[in-house]
């Protein structure tokens, strides 16, 4: 019993030594803050005193987030499929951090994705997902690395576990596996600079990509645009 109590005390002391202290002045940039996990995390970190910079895809998302957070939380418009939008967001983050560097980058791109058997899709359908959920997230990470290295910060990539299962065609799973591979490589390379890279594989939270009505809408649209040959090869029963 005494050994167990002693072990528990040692565990608590070690855990407490890793707790982040003096949160004021530590900047965290979060993508995908209109709704969902990005939105919840921005609010949570703001309450705890971090200097949060929240990237939103819409003006509505920015205003709603600002209405329920402190004045220290800043928002910036970000379209991950647009390199110019990414560059503007990087300039904004650089100005907000004012030479201190970036303590944290939380990358998250969740949303509705084309869902259908692979040969129902076009290359444009793959681009519509991967340009945002993979290449866009990689691009903004690369451009923020100098700020992260300056602060010896951390990169945290939120990845939905349903994207790791091969249950449907399209770019969503490719993006998820790609971000896992990118994170694993970056983690090794950034150790030299004191920058940590983590993956958080979260569960099946309700989101646009998993909404059954959205999936049905995509399937119907793709089915209707198929050539007669492909549609006949599958048949109405399959659909």
Automatic annotation (TrEMBL):
Pfam families for this protein: adh_short (PF00106)
Claim: Protein biosynthesis is one of the keywords in the record: no
UniProt KW keywords: Signal
Residue runs in coiled coils: none
Keyword Nucleotidyltransferase carried by entry: no
Database matches in PANTHER family: RETINOL DEHYDROGENASE 7 (PTHR43313:SF47), SHORT-CHAIN DEHYDROGENASE/REDUCTASE FAMILY 9C (PTHR43313)
Protein name: DR9C7 reductase
Annotated organism of origin: Galbula dea
Name of encoding gene: Sdr9c7
């Amino acid at each position: 019993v005494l050994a167990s109590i002693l072990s528990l005390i040692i565990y608590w002391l070690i855990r407490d030594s890793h707790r982040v202290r003096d949160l004021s002045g530590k900047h965290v940039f979060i993508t995908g803050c209109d709704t969902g996990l990005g939105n919840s995390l921005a609010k949570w970190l703001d309450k705890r005193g971090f200097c949060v910079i929240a990237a939103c895809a819409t003006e509505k998302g920015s205003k709603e987030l600002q209405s329920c957070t402190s004045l220290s939380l800043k928002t910036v418009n970000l379209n991950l499929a647009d390199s110019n939008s990414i560059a503007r967001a990087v300039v904004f983050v650089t100005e907000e951090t004012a030479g201190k560097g970036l303590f944290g980058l939380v990358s998250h791109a969740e949303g509705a994705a084309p869902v259908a058997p692979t040969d129902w899709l076009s290359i444009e359908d793959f681009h519509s997902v991967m340009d945002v959920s993979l290449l866009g997230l990689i691009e903004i990470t690369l451009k923020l690395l100098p700020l992260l290295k300056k602060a010896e910060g951390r990169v945290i990539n939120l990845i939905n576990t349903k994207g790791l299962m091969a249950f449907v065609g399209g770019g969503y799973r490719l993006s998820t596996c790609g971000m896992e591979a990118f994170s694993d490589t970056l983690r090794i390379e950034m150790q030299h600079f004191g920058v940590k890279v983590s993956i958080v594989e979260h569960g099946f939270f309700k989101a646009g990509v998993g909404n059954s009505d959205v999936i049905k809408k995509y399937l119907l649209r793709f089915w209707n645009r198929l050539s007669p040959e492909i549609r006949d090869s599958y048949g109405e029963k399959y659909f």
